[in-house]
Structure formats: C-alpha cells, structure tokens
Specification:
By secondary structure, the protein is of the alpha/beta class. It contains 13 helices and 18 strands. A five-stranded parallel β-sheet has the order 2-1-3-4-5, sandwiched between helices. Helix 9 runs parallel beside helix 11 and helix 12 packs parallel to helix 13. The longest helix has 26 residues.
Length: about 425
C-alpha cells in the first residue's frame, strides 16, 4: 500500500512551528510521509494562530490554498484558532477534523487512523503522544526548540492564556534530547522558545541551567533565545553568558515590551514599569556592548493618546534598542481590550505603527554603523553561488559573506563587518572558519 502523504503547516509563533515539526516526525513514525503545504497530499494538518483577527483570516486562506491543490483532500485544524471556537472551525470548508490544543499531538494519529480506516472518524485520544522529536530527516540550519507552553499573565489584549492554559514546562531531559536530535539532522543554530519562557521551571535547573546544558550539546554551533517577557526573567545571569565568548548563547535579546508608557502598560495589565525596561537595556549594554536588543511595541492600544505614544516613541529612541517590531493594535474578540474605553481610531493606530517602524529602520542603521570594522561570528545559511553566502551574525545582523569557497553552508565563521549599503545589505569580509 502506498504511504499516505500528509501536509503540515504552521501559522503564528515559534512554538507553533516547533509543534508542526513534532507532528511531522509523528507522521513519519506512523509510516506516512510528511510533505509541505504546497505539495500534493492525502490530507493536511494546520496548526493555527489566533493572536489577532488577521491571524484567523490567514487560517482560512491557508485552507483554501491547500484545497486548490488538493480538492478532494480533507484538513485537520488544530492550534489556537481552532481552540478559540471549535464549532466555527468545524464549519470551515474543507475541514474534516478539529483537534483541540489538549490533543494537538494526536492530530497525526487521528488523520492517519481515519484515512487508513483503523478506527472510527470520531475517535478522540484521551492522551496525546509525546511532542518529542523522533525522525531523522534533514532540517534547516536554524530551528525552534520549544521548552515551555502556556501563560498566566492575563494581558488585556491577549487571548493566548485562555487557549493554551497555564504555564507548563517541558521535561528537561526531553528538551536536551530534542536538541541532540536537531543537531544530528543538520541544525547549526537553535532558537529557544515558548509562550512565556520566563516561566520555565525544572527540578534539574531553571532557564539558566537549561542554557548551560544546551551549551554542552555536542555539535551545536550556537543558540539564541526567542521573545522574552520582562517580568521574572533572569536577565543578569543570561546577559553574563551572552557576554562570554566561550558560551554558545548569542548576544541577542528580543523583549516583549509592548509599550514604554506607564499608563498604557497599566491598561495592558503588564507587570512592570517602563523604567524597568530602560534599565534592563542599559545594564545589558554595559555588560555586553555589542548585544542586539529588539522589542515588540503595540501601537494604538486603548488609552494610548498622542502624549502616551510620543512618550513610548521617545524612550524607544534613546534607551538603546537595536530594532523594533511594531504592531498595530488589533481588537481581539474575547479579550478585555476590545471593550475598553479610549479606543484609538484605525487610521491613527496605523500611522503610529508606521512611525515606529521608521524609527526601527533608523535604530537598525545606527546599530550596524556601530558594528563597522568589528569581527563577529556569523553562521553561513543561504548559498548564493560562487562561494558567496547570506548569513546572520551572532548579534543578529544580516550579512553577505564572499568566502571564495564552495560547500560552506552551515559553517560558523569569523568575519569583519562592513558598511551597510543600499537596501540594508552588509558585506562582511571572511576571515576564517571556526571549528
């Protein structure tokens, strides 16, 4: 019998993408073939996102895209969009199975079992298979590693705690086993991720202990941390490791700040004041001067007047960020922010996000200019031909590296950072490969 072909696709956060990888591995373990969303397939599994209304639209769009290529093939939808309204998800044309987050890792079993007629379609697994990786197929050079799920912050604009539940940490040994699996499959850089990794706990050690354990994984060339929540994060210990050139942890942080105005942070129900963020950035730069620090900023949250926005803009300009991810506030049904007083008109929200993105471009140029002439470690990722590679520096700059050598993809090298040219491209002068 020909092996079933099951397409897997993830929208949204890095956690979703790790889970999609785990589902692909499960498909292979069940004797089927995991394929991309753009391939011919007998069925599809979509790990959806519900962070914004736009994310839900992308879910429907992805299912339509799959149906155009595979008109007779059904889709299983799981993830936060499905969790937000299971009945609505079941009504999406082309959807045959709706799998709640609690049973997400059963999605491959449900789909393959149904298609192979091994058990009834309505079968619901009482316990989901492990999300640990188990396949050996090659992976890309940079891959997300989930260490934690869930959040209990109850931010005004966010529905994710309702959909993913309270914080839950993965088993320490399983995380390390997944890291080793990734390295065996060709991964050179791991991105440590979770819904709120500040909540990671383990009897084998907390987040810092895990970072040190990852540092000892044989063959792993480097790793970095995904988005972090300011409250409860062990900044000093992590920054000390980022400043240590012998540690594989990259000098790069991305802080989910969301605003730098205290009134808006209070309206968002965030657990810190703006000066805590600015002091954290200052301390990080003192300890590790070449560190790259980015931040998420939501523009136009209810209660953000012009004065509050300009306060955030001013602090973001001066506090030492390297770049910003600016988001236009999107009212999310079933969140408190949707019904708050002080709603900001759509046009003003969009204009503020545009101004914040313009600031981000300026901050990025200034950061790159400050790196000119310095020697940094870069991971060669995309082969452009003729010994030229596109790469990412340890402190998160995109660079073009002419090495004059073939077959160096996934190599870790030292290079001298050049000036930023047109289109933001940085040419780096290759020095040597690092063993």
């Amino acid at each position: 019998m020909k092996a079933l072909r099951i397409a897997v696709f993830a929208l949204g956060c890095r956690v979703n993408h790790f889970e999609a990888l785990a589902l692909s591995d499960r498909i292979e373990a069940l004797g089927a073939t995991a394929v991309s969303w753009n391939d011919k397939a007998d069925a599809g599994i979509l790990n959806s996102c519900a962070l914004t209304a736009l994310a839900e639209k992308k879910t429907r769009r992805a299912i339509k895209q799959f149906a155009r290529l595979n008109p007779e093939s059904p889709v299983a939808i799981t993830g936060c969009c499905a969790e937000a309204d299971l009945e609505a998800a079941a009504r999406i044309p082309g959807v045959r199975w709706v799998v709640p987050n609690s049973a997400k890792m059963s999605a491959a079993d449900i789909v393959i079992g149904d298609l192979a007629a091994r058990y009834p379609q309505e079968k619901v697994f009482s316990s989901a298979p492990s999300e640990s990786l188990c396949a050996s197929s090659p992976l890309g050079d940079r891959t997300n590693l989930k260490i934690q799920d869930g959040c209990n912050n109850a931010c005004s604009y966010c529905i994710i705690p309702r959909l993913r539940g309270r914080p839950k940490s993965r088993v320490f040994s399983e995380i390390l086993s997944d890291a080793e699996n990734m390295v065996e499959r060709g991964v050179a850089e791991i991105v440590v991720t979770g819904i709120n990794i500040s909540k990671f706990e383990s009897e084998c050690g907390g987040l810092v202990g895990l970072l040190d354990a990852l540092n000892s994984v044989p063959g792993l060339k480097r790793f970095r941390i995904g988005s972090i929540e300011p409250h409860g994060f062990p900044f000093k210990a992590v920054e000390e490791r980022m400043a240590d050139p012998s540690h594989k942890l990259c000098p790069h942080m991305h802080i989910s700040a969301q605003s730098l105005n205290d009134a808006v942070l209070n309206a968002m129900n965030r657990k810190y004041a703006s000066d805590e963020i600015t002091k954290l950035v200052e301390c990080a730069r003192n300890l590790c001067p070449d560190i790259s620090i980015g931040a998420d900023i939501i523009c136009g949250h209810p209660g953000e007047g012009e004065r509050e926005f300009l306060d955030t803009l001013s602090k973001a300009t001066s506090c030492g960020f390297s770049y910003l991810h600016a988001f236009t506030f999107s009212p999310r049904p079933k969140t408190r922010a949707t019904a708050m007083d002080g709603q900001v008109p759509c046009q003003i929200r969009a204009l503020r996000a545009q101004k914040m993105r313009a600031l981000s471009e300026r901050l990025s140029r200034e950061f790159c200019a400050a790196q000119f002439g310095k020697t940094r470690r870069l991971l060669l990722e995309n082969d452009a031909g003729e010994g030229i590679y596109y790469a990412r520096s340890d402190n998160y700059m995109r660079c073009r590296v002419p090495t004059g050598r073939l077959g160096m993809r996934n190599a870790l090298v030292e290079a001298v950072i050049g000036k930023q040219g047109d289109g933001g491209r940085i040419d780096a002068e290759f020095l040597r490969e690092i063993d």
